[in-house]
Design brief:
It catalyses: shikimate + NADP(+) = 3-dehydroshikimate + NADPH + H(+). This protein has about 280 residues and is of the alpha/beta class. The protein contains 11 helices and 12 strands. The chain has helices at about 20-30, 50-55, 80-85, 105-120, 135-150, 160-170, 180-185, 230-240, 245-250, 255-260, 270-275, and strands at about 5-15, 35-40, 60-65, 80, 90-95, 100-105, 130, 155, 175, 190-195, 220, 240-245. Bound molecules: 2'-monophosphoadenosine-5'-diphosphate (ATR).
Length: about 280
């Protein structure tokens, strides 16, 4: 139940009906008995300026922002945080009492929190990382890894130019390599991350061999449907430690919830099961 003083937040996207964020934040609002609400907001691209004015007019504490607004939203922010600038996308808005908007990106923190909490033995200094893919998700992963202390990252992508752009943007920590160079790059790899959509339900599996990967390496996938992707399954069979991608989705929501509702929520197994049960 909410009162007339309830704090308001939500998620803007187009379409929005598939978003798991209302279930996720709704679970925490119930769990922590917060006087607040989090609602899905279907905002067509041409309505984005009016939607922002609406957030201000209605006194929203903030909002998540998803496809297709993650770049377009930047021009409506009074402040764009360094993480969102480097990643090139905003996924979280926080409004202050004057209605000034700060846009940030929480995906990198979600990725790193998921690694640390799912595998407390993960050491960013253990050795080079190999990141597959060079899209928006890869940018968040690179930003997070570098901040966490990983000093050498090789990025492989089907379209090499995109990996080269990342190598420039995240110099000197990132080197672009072709997919054909991945087997050699795995030989001293401490962390392998898939950020491509390969392995997602309905997509072909990722076609790489893990033969040269040290048994001590950690393997993670940001795809979470299915939870155990072909890559993670292969890694498990070889005896590598693995971390699935669902935790990134859950952990990226933590900073927004804390900023809007004043409580730092915990990611639990019960929450994982609720989100997994949401089609
Ligand atoms: P996101 O924001 O989720 O990262 P994206 O920016 O569209 O999405 O990036 C998708 C990534 O998956 C890219 O690295 C893409 O490779 P290209 O840059 O060459 O397009 C990769 N990807 C998608 N389908 C692929 C496929 N069939 N084979 C290899 N890589 C693929």
């Amino acid at each position: 139940m909410i009162s007339g003083a309830a704090k308001l937040a939500g998620v803007m996207g187009w379409p929005i009906s598939h978003s798991k964020s209302p279930v996720l934040h709704g679970y925490w609002l119930d769990h922590y008995k917060v006087d607040g609400a989090y609602i899905p907001m279907a905002v067509a691209p041409e309505d984005l300026p009016r939607a922002i004015a609406g957030l201000r007019a209605l006194g929203f504490k903030g909002s998540n922002v998803t496809v297709p607004h993650k770049q377009a939203i930047m021009e409506f922010c009074d402040t764009v945080a360094e993480d969102a600038r480097m990643i090139g996308a905003v996924n979280t808005l926080v409004l202050d009492t004057e209605g000034r908007i700060t846009g940030s990106n929480t995906d990198h923190a979600g990725f790193i929190a998921n690694l640390h909490l799912s595998d407390p033995s993960w050491d960013p200094k253990a050795g080079p990382a190999v990141v597959l893919g060079a899209g928006g998700a890869a940018r968040a992963v690179l930003y997070g890894l570098i901040r966490a202390g990983v000093s050498k990252i090789r990025v492989a992508n089907r379209t090499l130019e995109r990996a080269q752009t990342l190598a420039q943007d995240f110099a000197p920590h990132v080197e672009a390599i072709a997919f054909t160079e991945v087997p050699a790059a795995l030989s001293d790899c401490a962390l392998l991350v898939n950020t491509t959509s390969l392995g997602m339900a309905g997509q072909p599996p990722l076609d790489i061999r893990l033969d040269g990967l040290p048994k001590t390496a950690l393997v993670t996938d940001i795809v979470y449907a299915p939870l155990i992707t072909p890559l993670l399954s292969e890694a498990m069979k070889r005896g590598n430690r693995t971390v699935d991608g669902l935790g990134m989705l859950l952990h990226q929501a933590v900073p927004g919830f804390e900023a809007w509702f004043g409580i730092r929520p915990t990611v639990t197994q019960a929450l994982r099961e609720i989100i997994l049960g949401t089609k």
